[in-house]
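User: Teach me something about this protein's shape.
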Amino acid sequence: MDLTQGTESEKNDRAKRMMLWFGIISLIMSFAGLTSAVLVSRKREDWMHNFEMPQAFLISCVIIIASSLTFILAKRALKNNNRSLATIMLLLTFLLGVAFIWSQVKGFQQIVDSGYYFTGASSNVTMSFIYVIAAVHILHVVAGLISLMVVIYNHFKQKYSATHMLGLELSATFWHFIDILWLFLYLFLAYLV
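Assistant: First, the predicted structure itself:
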């Protein structure tokens, strides 16, 4: 298909989708760099091999999966012209995103309660990587929440319909990406580190 073909609106939609995928690919590369650094660093003598991830991080996996499901249900409801169900599911997705961040903060607190800090005498390279990777991911969840707020605002303004929901679709794609990314990061840190 020739990308220069179509109406201005179709070209604009393709450009927005492409920009999102460029952003996602750059995020994949960034986190690939971080996880590669972990793989190299775990050969150090001071690397902790017996650390168990906080329970709150596992709970955050359940929360993030639930948030992806509610976003899928929101999109499906909008396609079926069920605006009230779409509203409920979008708001629930947002609340689950906030709950995810809260759970992550609880996970950090569990690490601190175990006596490990990001810096200082009781820090180590293992904990520093866990803090950095989880914190950078949280920043992307915040970006996803901002995107979701825009979607909710536009939904209330009735800018989306069953045939016109590009903004919602782009936000959902990003949201599902950061959800899958956290599941990968959790499994990576819990089982490969």
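Now, about its shape. Residues 8-192 form a domain with the Four Helix Bundle (Hemerythrin (Met), subunit A) fold (CATH 1.20.120.80). Residues 30 and 36 are 10 Å apart (CA to CA). If you'd like, I can walk through any region in more detail.
User: That's plenty for now, thanks!
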